[in-house]
Amino acid sequence: MSKKPVIIEKIGAIGVFDGVHLGHQALIQETVAQAKARDLSSIIVTFDNHPDSVLYGENIPLLTTPAEKKYLVKKAGVDLLMTLPFTHDVATLSPHDFLLHMYGITGLRGLVIGSDFALGAGRRGNYPALKKIGEEMGIEITRLPAVQQNGQTISSTLVRRALIDGNLDKANSLLGHPYLVIGQVEKGLQRGKTIGFPTANLSIHPLKMLPPDGVYAVKVRIAENQYLGILNIGRRPTFKDSPRTFEVHLLDFTGNLYGCTLQTDIIKFIRSEQAFPDSLALARQISSDIQVARQILYEDNLL
Which of 95, 153, 186, 300 is an S-S bond match for 146, by CB 3.0 to 4.6 Å? Predict the structure, then answer.
């Protein structure tokens, strides 16, 4: 006769956590703190697709892909990240049934929520409703105040708006970390190599939101190693026939990157993408961009 698995009791937070911005980080920090104080494990429960894709049939651009979200949440010190598919069945669960399900699979003993958090069908699981359900199940509900910056409540929508506006500095400030893009290096047209600046062409999640086309100073992690770099997002108008790409040139690096996974922190906008009369003029501009990137990254002590 098989024994039922022992479920370790946990303190958790539930949500989309798209961007893992400063508001999300406050929830995560409180979750981890409560778990440590009660000698329990901490857990973040999130979804591998945006709920709006099911509720409204809209493919919302993602600030963080599942891989990026996993990296950022685990970096924040959470013991366990549980990623679930958001389906029509999940969308129709009552707040009571959703919490009961969470308790059954995670041993949830505490839930940390934001000021406007609600779960369950019709968002009926607001704070008063969850407080009552939690008392019945032995789940303590903690509600945190909204995290604000310059009088605005920090939200994923606000970060998206900043990126659309080309305001990377504001987006990074709201996030509390540089905008992160994780992708695998794939074979490109190797045009950068022909002018002396080889680039790593990254395959990006199709729903990943990117800043506007242009050149950026970046910091890149490959396994345990870190590098400075410059990033070009765009269609390389000098060559006219190029698809939109995400290409990183690593400074002071030699080697083969094909198949490697790069974690790219987008630090600062340098300039808009532009067409040059020939490859020589482009190479001169890239040399200038590299000097600007070095100055940005070294002055800010970001390496």
Answer: 153
Cα-based torsion angle of the residue sequence 253, 259, 265, 270 in order, rounded to the nearest 10 degrees: 60
User: Is there a contact between 249 and 243 (Cβ–Cβ < 8 Å)?
Assistant: no
Per-residue pLDDT reduced to its tens digit, 160-218:
999 999 999 999 999 999 999 999 999 866 565 556 788 999 999 999 999 999 999 99
Instruction: Compute the distance between CA of residue 31 and CA of residue 43 in angstroms, rounded to an integer.
Output: 8
Residue 57, token pair as written in the block: 């049939």
Would you give the distance in Å from CA 195 to the centre of its chain? 33
**Phi/psi at 129 (nearest 5 deg)?**
-65, -45
List pLDDT tens digits, range 225-280: 999 999 999 987 666 667 789 999 999 998 889 999 999 999 999 999 888 878 88
Domains of the chain: 10-153 (3.40.50.620), 179-299 (2.40.30.30)
CA torsion, ordered 264, 267, 271, 276, to nearest 10 deg = -30
The amino acid that residue 171 corresponds to is A
pTM over 0.70, yes/no:
yes
For residue 107, report the phi and psi dihedrals to the nearest 5 degrees. Answer: 70, 35
